């Protein structure tokens, strides 16, 4: 089975540290074909750690890695995009919870992220969630005005707003990180099997749920497999990401 995970992290998360080796071993144990990964060292603005963690995971997993460049206001202010590094970035990420009011249509930092997305022809992953600054609605105008750029709304949350974005903007995808399987199924049943990406936020569920990550992962994917048709399953777990990340 071929499977792409569109949302994975390496690096520190509160008291936990998920090393490149740990992530590599976990993803290999589940035979994941490819995964888009960004470093949580970005949250600490530890950019040298970002580069070394991403390079290390590439060394371990080669072409399986779809490196995701997590952009901060500080990086833009100081012109540090890490583009000189020998890394083939396949996705950009922004986090409006960490940096509120920076990335919407009127946000000071949106133009640069859009420029990078266009230059490299790669999608922008937006951390979305229940807080108003992270709501899909906050980004609807930005997404609508930039219809040539693809956006991934991470976590598909809140669900109604995420579905509304799918409905209104053909350039929107959701990723399933932390999404309950029944909500993923709801998206499929509404006809969005081509707009949902398998994403898991690995290894962060380990922090919130204190679970065995492999068991958590396999259980979720089996549950999803059992509730949708084969076409939708393959679109979500492989083909959608393959065409989006190239
Ligand atoms: Zn994440």
Overview of this protein structure:
The chain is of the alpha/beta class and 246 residues long. It has a single domain, classed as Metal-dependent hydrolases (TIM Barrel, Alpha-Beta Barrel). It has helices at residues 20-29, 47-61, 73-77, 110-120, 140-145, 159-168, 181-189, 205-209, 213-227, 230-245; strands spanning 4-13, 16-18, 34-39, 65-70, 91-94, 124-127, 151-154, 172-175, 196-197. A nine-stranded mixed sheet has the order 2-1-3-4-5-6-7-8-9, with helices on both faces. Helix 1 runs parallel beside helix 2 and helix 7 runs parallel beside helix 9. The longest helix has 16 residues, at 230-245. It is globular. The relative contact order is 0.15. The structure holds zinc ion. Zinc ion is lined by residues 7, 9, 154, 201.
Shape designation: globular
Helix and strand content put the structural class at alpha/beta
- Estimated radius of gyration: 17 Å
Query: How are helices and strands ordered from N to C?
Result: EEHEHEHEHEHEHEHEHHH
Ligands bound here?
A: zinc ion
What is the percent of helical residues?
Answer: 40-55%
Query: Quick check: average pLDDT?
Result: 96
| CATH superfamily descriptor | Metal-dependent hydrolases
Q: What proportion strand? A: 15-25%
In total, the number of strands is 9
CATH architecture: Alpha-Beta Barrel
Q: What's the assembly state of these chains?
A: single chain
Q: Can you tell me the CATH topology?
A: TIM Barrel
Poorly predicted runs: none
* Total individual domains: 1
């Amino acid at each position: 089975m071929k499977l792409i995970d569109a949302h994975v992290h390496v690096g520190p998360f509160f008291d936990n540290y998920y090393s490149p080796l740990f992530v590599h071993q976990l993803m290999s144990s589940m035979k994941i074909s490819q995964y888009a990964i960004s470093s949580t060292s970005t949250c600490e603005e530890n950019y040298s750690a970002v580069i070394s963690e991403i390079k290390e995971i590439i060394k371990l997993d080669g072409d399986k890695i779809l490196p995701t460049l997590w952009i901060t206001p500080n990086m833009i202010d100081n012109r540090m995009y890490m583009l000189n590094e020998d890394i083939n970035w396949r996705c950009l990420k922004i986090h409006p919870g960490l940096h509120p009011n920076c990335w919407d249509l009127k946000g000071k930092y949106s133009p640069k992220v859009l420029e990078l997305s266009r230059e490299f022809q790669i999608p922008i992953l937006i951390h979305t969630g229940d807080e108003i600054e992270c709501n899909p609605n906050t980004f609807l105008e930005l997404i609508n005005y930039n219809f040539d750029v693809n956006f991934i709304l991470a976590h598909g949350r809140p669900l109604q707003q995420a579905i509304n974005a799918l409905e209104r903007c053909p350039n929107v995808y959701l990723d399933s990180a932390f999404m309950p399987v029944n909500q993923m199924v709801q998206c499929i049943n509404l006809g969005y099997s081509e707009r949902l990406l398998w994403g898991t936020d690995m290894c962060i569920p380990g922090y919130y749920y204190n679970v065995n990550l492999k068991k958590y992962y396999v259980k979720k994917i089996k549950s999803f497999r059992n509730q949708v048709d084969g076409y939708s399953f393959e679109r979500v777990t492989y083909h959608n990401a393959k065409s989006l990340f190239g």
